[in-house]
Amino acid sequence: MNFLLALPVLLPLLAAALTLGLGRHYRIQSAVAFVTLSLSLIFALAILGLTDKATLVLDVGSWAAPIGISLVADRLAAIMLCTSLVVMVAVLAYSLSEGTVHESQDIPTPIFHPTYLVLCAGVNNAFLTGDMFNLYVGVEILLTSSFVLITLGGTRDRIRSGTVYVAVSMVGSAIFLVALASLYGACGTMNMAQLSMRLTEIDPAVAMLIQTLFLVAFGLKAAVFPLSAWLPDSYPTAPAPITAVFAGLLTKVGVYAIIRMQVLIFPTSPVDVVLAIVGILTMIVGILGAVAQDDIKRLLSFTLVSHIGFMIWGISLANTLGIASAVFYAVHHILVQTTLFLVAGMMEKIGGSTSLRRLHSLAKISPLLAIWYLIPAFNLVGFPPLTGFLGKLGLAEATAARNTPLAWALLAAGLVASLLTLYVVVKIWLQTFWQGRESAQESGGEEEEAVDTLNPAARIPRGVWAATGFLTAVTIGLSVFAGPVYTFTERATISMTRAEYQRAVLGEDGRGHGISKLSSGNREDFLNEDGNQADTAAAETTTKSVLFDALSLSPRKSYGSLPVRGGSND
C-alpha cells in the first residue's frame, strides 16, 4: 500500500495540468478540482490509518534510500496531511459556492484552479518527503503558486502585498538553499534518516551554523518574531478563501519543518533557549499587534502570528509531551484559523467591509453567522473543553515537567496571550455583532461611516454556510475525540525520533536496501521492540494524565524516547 504516498502529490499535479486546458469550461474545471482533492483526502485518511501500525516508505523511481528520493509517511506526516486536505477541500467548496472563482474582476477562473491544485500538491509534498532537497522543492512549489494566488485580480493592494510577499519568500528560499548546500557539503546526503546519523559525526560548530540557517529559513516561513512583519501586510488583501488557506496551511509548513528538524535531525542541539525566547516574543508581540487593529483580517493575521508562538513553546520544551502538544495545537490551529478567516469573508460579504468601525448588528441580521463566529473564536481563546484549551493544557503540563524559569516564563506569556486573545475576539463580537448602527456611527467618527446593512444575509450561498459549518463541525469533533487524537500525536512524536525513523527508512541494520552501512557508531541510538512498546504505553499514560488528571500538573520523569536536550532552558 506504499504507492498511496504518491497519490496526494501526483493527483493534484495531474489535475492542475488538466484544468489548465479546461479554462473555458468552468463547471468541468471546478468538478475536476473538487473531485481530485476529495480523492486525495480519502487516500490521506487511508494513509493515516496505515501509519498508526507502521511507517510507510515509498522509494520514488525505485531508487532506494538514501540515494533516491523517499516519500515517508509516519504519524506526524499523516495527521498533518489529513488536516491540510480537510482544509483544502472545505476552502475550495467555499470558493466555488461563493462565486469567487468565476468573477473575473476578482479571480480569473482559468488561473485559480490549476494554481490552487499546484499549491495543494506542494503542501502535500512538503509533509510527505523524507529528503531535505525534496522538502525545498515542495516549499518552492507552494510558494510559486501562492505568488499567483495572492496577486490574482491585479488590484493595487494585492500587487503591493504580493511584492512584499515575494521579496520575503525569495530571501527565505535563498537562505534555505544556502543551508542545503552547507548540509550536503558537510554530510554528503539529503536523506533525513541518513542525516540524523551523519550530523553526529561533523564539527559541532558547523552543525550549529547549518541548524541556524534552517531555523531562520523555516522561521521566516512560519512567521515567528522577529521574522513575521511581512504577514499582516500580505495575507489580508487576498480574497477570503485564499487568505484562509494561506493562514491555515502555509505557516504550518514552516512549523512542521522546525519540528521535524529539531526532533529528527538536530535532537541534541542546545538551541532550546533561543526557541523559548522566540516563542515568548512571538506570542506577546503578535497579540499586542492584534489589540491595536481595527480591521478584522489584519487583527486575525496578528493572532495567527501570536499563536504560532504556542507551537514554538512546545517545541522549545524538548520533551515528548511538549512536542506532542505542539503537533496537537498545530492541527487545532489549522482548522480554527481557517474557519475564522472564512467567517471574516462572510462578514465582509454581508457588511461590505471588514472594518470594526463600519460593521454592526450582524447578530441581528444573521444569528447563524454569530454562532459560526463564536465557536472558532472561543476555540482560539482556549475555552474548555475545546481543542484550544486541551492543547494549552498539554503545553502547561509539559512546562511543569520541564520546571525551569524560562519554561515558566513561556507559560506566563501563553496566559497573557490567551487573555488578550479573549479581549480581541470579544472586541470583534461587541463591535460587529452586538452594537447597533448608531453606536457604530459614533465609534467610527467622521472618517468612516457605518454601513447600512439591510438583511443581506440571503446573498451568502448555502455552500458557503456548509463549507464553514463543516470546518466548525470538524473542530468540535476534534474536541470530542481529543483523547485518541492526543494519544496519536504522542505516538507520532515517538515515531519520528531518530531510532524509529532510521529503522523505517533505512532498515534494521542501517542499510538502505543494499546501500552500504552508514555509521556503526550510531547503532546505539536504535531502540529494541520492548522499548518501543514501553514508549507507546508511556504516551497513553501521558494522555490520560493530561485529559483526566489535569489539575495535578505533576512533572513526570520520562516522556517516552524523546531526549530532553542539553541545557536547562534557564
UniProtKB/TrEMBL annotation:
It holds the Pfam family Proton_antipo_M. Residues 130-420 form the NADH:quinone oxidoreductase/Mrp antiporter transmembrane domain. GO terms for biological process: ATP synthesis coupled electron transport. The keyword Chloroplast does not apply. Keywords: Cell membrane, Membrane, Transmembrane, Transmembrane helix. It is a multi-pass membrane protein. It is found in: Cell membrane; Membrane. One of its GO terms (cellular component) is plasma membrane. The chain crosses the membrane at residues 31-51, 72-96, 133-152, 164-186, 206-231, 238-259, 271-292, 365-386, 406-430, 464-486. Signal peptide: none annotated. Residues 530-539 have a biased composition (Polar residues). Residues 514-539 are annotated as: Disordered. GO terms for molecular function: NADH dehydrogenase (ubiquinone) activity. It comes from the Bacteria. Belongs to the CPA3 antiporters (TC 2.A.63) subunit D family. PANTHER family: NA(+)_H(+) ANTIPORTER SUBUNIT D1 (PTHR42703:SF1), NADH DEHYDROGENASE (PTHR42703). This is Na+/H+ antiporter subunit D.
